[in-house]
Every structure is written in C-alpha cells, then in structure tokens.
C-alpha cells in the first residue's frame, strides 16, 4: 500500500457504514483489501452507491452476516 493510497483514503470523512461492512466484515482479513474497498468507494462515489450501501447494511447488521 502506498502513502498516496493512505492519503486518498483519509481524505474522505468516515461514515456510518462502508463497503467493508457489507462485504462480509470478517471475511475481509487483509488490511490491504479493506483499503482497496475504501478506494473503490472513493473512485465510484455517487448518491446511488451510498443508498445501496445503506440498504445492504441493514441485513448485514440484523443477521450478523460476516461477523464472528
């Protein structure tokens, strides 16, 4: 992971949820994959993507999908 990737990742205000949360949390074991998901979010951001993430967060939290 590069310093540039870290700066890009930290340039975005953290939110309530993220792609990591809906991608199976405990199945994303490598930190570089977590960073990749964050950068993917930054590169593809849209209001529609935020809405999809929020909708997919509800069942992930309610049913504990990906949590150990």
Q: Explain this structure to me?
A:
The structure is a single chain. The chain has helices at residues 3-10, 19-22, 31-44, 47-62. The chain is built from four helices and no strands. It starts with a helix and ends in a 6-residue tail after the last helix. By secondary structure, the protein is mainly α. The model has no long low-confidence stretch (mean pLDDT 85). It has a domain at 25-68. The protein is 62% helix and 0% strand.
Number of helices: 4
Structural class by sheet pairing and helices: mainly alpha
Largest sheet: none
Gyration radius, in Å? 12 Å
Q: Which bin fits the share of residues in helices?
A: 55-70%
Series of H and E elements: HHHH
Number of strands: 0
Q: In terms of per-residue confidence, which ranges show pLDDT below 50 for 5 or more consecutive residues?
A: none
Distance between the termini: 26 Å
- What percent of residues are in strands? under 5%
What overall form do the CA principal axes indicate? Answer: flat
Mean pLDDT: 85
Topology:
Elements: H1 3-10, H2 19-22, H3 31-44, H4 47-62
In brief, what are we looking at here?
With 68 residues, the protein is mainly alpha-helical. It has helices at residues 3-10, 19-22, 31-44, 47-62. It has a domain at 25-68.
Index terms:
4 helices, 68 residues, 62% helix, 0% strand
């Amino acid at each position: 992971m590069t310093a540039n990737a870290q700066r890009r990742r930290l340039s975005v205000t953290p939110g309530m949820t993220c792609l990591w949360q809906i991608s199976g949390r405990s199945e994303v074991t490598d930190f570089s994959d977590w960073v990749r998901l964050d950068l993917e979010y930054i590169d593809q951001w849209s209001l529609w993507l935020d809405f999809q993430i929020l909708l997919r967060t509800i069942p992930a939290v309610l049913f504990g999908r990906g949590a150990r």
